[in-house]
Amino acid sequence: MLVGVQLSRTSEHALAYIGKSKIPTCRIILSMPTPAPILSFEQARHKVEQHAARLRPRGKVLVKLLDSPGQILAEPVLADRDFPSFPRATRDGYAVRAADLAELPGTLKVIAEIKAGAEVDPSLKIESGQAAAIMTGAPAPPGCDAVVMVEYTSRDGDQITITKGLSAGDNIVPIASEAKRGDRLLSPGARLDHAAIAVAASVGRSRLLVYSKPRVTVLATGDELMDIDVPLALHQIRNSNTYSLAAQIQAAGGEPVLLPIAPDQPERLRELIAEGLEADLLLLTGGVSMGKYDLVEQVLTQLQAEFFFTGAQIQPGRPVVFGRIPAGLQESTSLGGHDFSPVATNAKEPEALAPEGHKYFFGLPGNPVSTMVTFELFARPMLEALAGMIPRKLIFLHAKLKSEIKTKPGLKRFLPATLSGEFEQAEVELTRWQGSGDIAATAKANCYIVIPPDRDRIAVGEWVPVLMR
Ligand code: AMP
Ligand code: MG
Known about the structure:
The chain is of the alpha/beta class. The protein contains nine helices and 30 strands. A hairpin with a 2-residue loop joins strand 26 and strand 27.
């Protein structure tokens, strides 16, 4: 019995191994479906974006405007009136007819004063030769077509002398020029940042319909892992990934659901994966490398997972896995034996498949920095799509390199770095670190430098792409 189990693990492990290498050594693999590929960074990202585009948020909830920052809008927000609803002065000064100032200096008679918030006298009209004192935000009266700034005027009783000419329209925002009543100002899928909230407030919306936050389960795997509040033996480490992921999930608009640590033991791992698949998205960490007890892909395969990639040509995070499991199968598939049948099917494109019938998962590498980076690069767009957000492309900003970089070509690297400088002078340099387990160095960094796979040296002063944290 024991021998049987051992054999089956070894064979299954061989399968996972083939997914990551080019050495098909045993006969059993001849009958197997094509293994999921290891993709370039860009291919892997596009694969995720393709699937994310087909996801829909689960529900909607009404929240107070003050509770809405960072949430995703689930309804259109319309202009409830014209914006502005009156011709609005944008300067303190005098409302005039521009044609009166064809010759300078010009002298006009002040016939009224209009302050912001005051109702305009309906009989007031600026005729040629006249002006009205006006404040920023006040309605420009009929007859005038421009506001001259107070700085270019001098006043003597009811006379003003103006030393600067102006054109019709200067310093007045016309009625409805920003938006007409009924115009859509915000669309469903917008992330509610402070500018969007200003719009909602300006149309009188004290409550907004937002999408429910997707529930994302986090399942850390590894026999060496311990909960963070129990004493440790020397060979054990604390499970930090669950907590860093929970923070990243929250920042991306999701609700983390934390599962107990899974040991490197297939039966318990399978149970916890099945539990994790009840949420909208499952994130596993650890157990996706090439080690003998890296069982995650094996157990997912038994659960009839379809893998879209089982690695990306990046560092950190090369063994990252992305796939999905048909809904319901996690309950019915029996464990044990060596049922290799439904593995990767790369031929199917997402267009052909109903997204509702599946649960997506990521197997993120266990090294803590790999976990953080692969979440940002790959898991985030899926989470944002489930949260209802309009998809956005990943964009890297650029900064000048402060210290030379020497590296090995072949992988696209996302290495912890410090962005410094001030105003237009952004400089960046790599943080000294001990590799993708070095959370202390990564916590001191504030971004990642993105190094293309074809570079082995980058000189001081070159512009380099930066992934912000
Ligand atoms: P693995 O991907 O399982 O091979 O793990 C790679 C490295 O990351 C090992 O040194 C693990 O001990 C470490 N590691 C795995 N999972 C976690 C976790 N949840 N928290 C902190 N370190 C982890
Ligand atoms: Mg492990």
